[in-house]
Amino acid sequence: MGRYGDVLKIYIEADAPQGFMFRIATSVDQVGYGHYLADWVYLKSPYPHHAIGYLQWNTFSYHASWMPEWTQLTIKVSVFDTNGNESNEVVFPFEFVSQVVPESPLPPPFDQQNLPLLGHVAIDLFNPFQMGDDHDRILR
Hints:
By secondary structure, the protein is an all-beta fold. It has no helices and seven strands. Strand 5 (72-81) and strand 6 (90-95) form a beta hairpin. Mean pLDDT is 89; it is low at 134-140.
């Protein structure tokens, strides 16, 4: 759970002993809206066979000035290697709430200091209640 506009850190660890890790796919399903296309984070070189770190996602969206409380999201993350093999998909349920949610302590191995930022997730959410509102219309 978290507030709309909070910055989420999605911690992941992946191994590719036979291949080279290439990119991370993050997709979102939103109750009341639908599926957002995957956002890709391309891994840079110190991660050929093993990666540990976090993805950062600012949940504020230019397409939604607010998000209803209890909006439910399903965040899905998987890693691809250079051969096109996909890891197991990890699913994170998430819900927007109005109160401040205290951070929970991270489990091992994510409780280490100075884990690297692997990349930024660029998914802009839509508020289904604002769609079609002239004040939030997207010009294309």
